[in-house]
């Protein structure tokens, strides 16, 4: 855990004088809010093309079965049907998250591996006929025995989901840092517990949708609900053997993603594209929420066994974990999810020894993948609840034990290195815990045991972290183009996608701030792979940090070009000039100035042939202190890391077991520097806190042999407005040198602290430990009953 | 099963429409597909998410869960009918200014729900706003800001501030 120096070239290009910012750090409305409140914002399902057909999917009624024969003749004869396809039309193409994991077909050809997997598709003149035609497709199956949880999957002789994947192992990791046995031997208290986090829906309301058409035999255009459109761009290029230059993915407004499904592809995307090719007309496929909730990607259910050793004063000596997870039918992003679930354990507390074994299994359930708090959520839940269990035994206050273990904020210019070689230039977790405890008046709250009739109240604390600016081993290209129009208005083009987190507004603000002009002067063009620069996409909390860096660099490049012209005019050097409030001026003599519009006109008209285009790219996604090494679990998976502490009060109905979060709640969040504070607040509260409360108390897919029993958001129980407590958000400013204007990711980390804080509060109120999420009333009821019986 | 199309005559955003629709056609589908009013979203088709909410004769209804023909002879207002030209409705303004908009998918339905509430009850308590808003799910769960935005709009509409 040596402290390293920040390398010279990594020294921040940030101006650390927030009081001088014109836009950044102050509240500003989202650039797309007007289009969204008037209904003008077009989402994928709102897009229509002339002469467009509707597509529908024929889905398998078996979770595991061999496909023996598909007869489409009757469907083809139905009037109004224009094309019918099966998986065979894709010529054996398979796709996946990485080259090694291409194990999924656009539509299954020989075997279905989860219930309702697509096997054929129809395009017809309307949606009803397309669906009716699907009913007429006859598929002969041979039903196969399946495996429906990892424990079934790991049994010897269990049916194989993929014939070539023995033992149904999807991915496994075994890492060892320091010496855990020595750590346990030196511990005063060692404890082992198993925690379970359930299968969860992403919970977005907009189901996948796509409109695909071929402008000619070799040019494809799709409008699709994709949070990472360049995934589809590459996959479609491979699938249809088109050069990338001929694949145009145009991004409409996106109704949230939260990782996973909208990152890559669904059966309907491939089907619509192939149907459009076959029929020679645009084809649209819109999923229902039922389709989404029964077939699309969900959060991995995990079983986390965690053994921790601490000293008598509560200092962590060693942690050993064993994680079992259900990857579902195909590999998808499981290698990454399971990597993160192990790798995050060395944050946010000082940990000298760590060992982990992680096993992810294939099952005949819909595939698992990223969900907000990707991987981190599961093990941080286990770690932070167990910390309270041990603190209680040691007689140490929960806030105090966290403060004793929290990684300290490194001094400016220094780096903290964890045992797994993660590097932190800033770490506000200690300040987050202190501020949260102060805001809620922790000491007073803990002292007073509150019981009112049959209701008991308690408070709980948790701390957490998340990576920002995911570092990848491939596909890192991330750039921005800032085009100055001759009237002084500006087009911004990035490959980044705003799925609702507000990145379009942030990118516009970074551009305007850097150029010294107004937010209204910037017009952002959403992703169109024919024009915008290639980008990894919206995941790994990477957009603000990496696309943001690219955007700032592009704006700086455009500014440099303009200042060269202005400097010539005033007979000074470009670096003696600055632009602010739409005026370029000599820094030492502000009276020597020129308005933005005049300067731009001068540049565009009087300099022959000049077009002012600024280009910039992000560098930090790849410039590293050691790339992530999946085999050893070492290295930075983030460019920087956010931190959160949360304190939550709960009310427990001691008769029924119903738990409710009260409005006595505070989240202290270190996102480096909040670029738009109200937007960060909204994301922390809505995009993190409430889903976290949902994970703690409500949300869980119920499964029965591959069938999702509660495939609607009411029975699944997404929190509604009356289950969404208010909370106070405190910003802890650490000004990270690796993020634009000091920023790190905002709020993905905060989604990981609600569940442990709620479960710890529940223990404080009712003296029971719920180790299997969610803490639904029946679970709490039985735990309370057992406690009473044991007395 | 298919049924012959029947005539539907109704007013949407103040404009009279006469068209032939299948008896099984949902109001949301006719608004979106026939009238091209795609501001009304299609979510669950089973009354759980509420993003298809429109106002029918002053009441908020889920347009995915009533047949288009049930609107025959009635008045429908959708999100497209809320602003007066360039002038936004106070609810729309409050949603923008208060930062209550994130991905925006639930916003049209939510704004219509808020309008139905405030038209009937110009001075709702927080609990009443929460109760009205609970009919519409939001994945981003911008509930806190949305509830506050409705209260701000209510104040404006009552002529305060």
Describe the structure in your own words:
The complex is a heterodimer of chains A (791) and B (161). With 791 residues, chain A is α+β, with helices and mostly antiparallel strands. Chain A has 3 domains: 44-144 and 207-254 and 262-295, Aldehyde oxidase/xanthine dehydrogenase, a/b hammerhead (Aldehyde Oxidoreductase, domain 3, Alpha-Beta Complex), CATH 3.90.1170.50; 298-471 and 626-790, Aldehyde Oxidoreductase, domain 4; 472-617, 2-Layer Sandwich (Aldehyde Oxidoreductase, domain 4), CATH 3.30.365.10. Helix content of chain A is 27%, strand content 26%. In chain A, the strands form 9 sheets. Chain A has a 7-stranded mixed beta sheet with strand order 4-6-2-13-10-11-12, sandwiched between helices. In chain A, strands 8-17-16-15-9 form a 5-stranded mixed beta sheet. In chain A, a hairpin with a 2-residue loop joins strand 27 and strand 28 (589-595). Chain A is globular, with a radius of gyration of 27 Å. The two termini of chain A are 45 Å apart. Residues 6-16 of chain A have low confidence and may be disordered. The radius of gyration of chain B is 16 Å and the shape is globular. The N and C termini of chain B lie far apart (55 Å). The model of chain B has no long low-confidence stretch (mean pLDDT 94). In chain B, strands 2-1-5-3-4 form a 5-stranded mixed beta sheet, with helices on one face. Chain B folds into 2 domains: 6-80, Roll (Ubiquitin-like (UB roll)); 90-157, DNA polymerase, domain 1 (Orthogonal Bundle), CATH 1.10.150. In chain B, 33% of the residues lie in helices and 16% in strands. By secondary structure, chain B is of the alpha+beta class. Chain B has 5 helices and 5 strands. In chain B, a hairpin with a 2-residue loop joins strand 1 (6-12) and strand 2 (15-21). Chain B has helices spanning 27-34, 90-97, 107-120, 126-133, 143-157; strands at 6-12, 15-21, 53-56, 59-62, 75-77. Chains A and B meet through helix 1 and helix 17 of A and helix 2, helix 3, helix 4 and helix 5 of B.
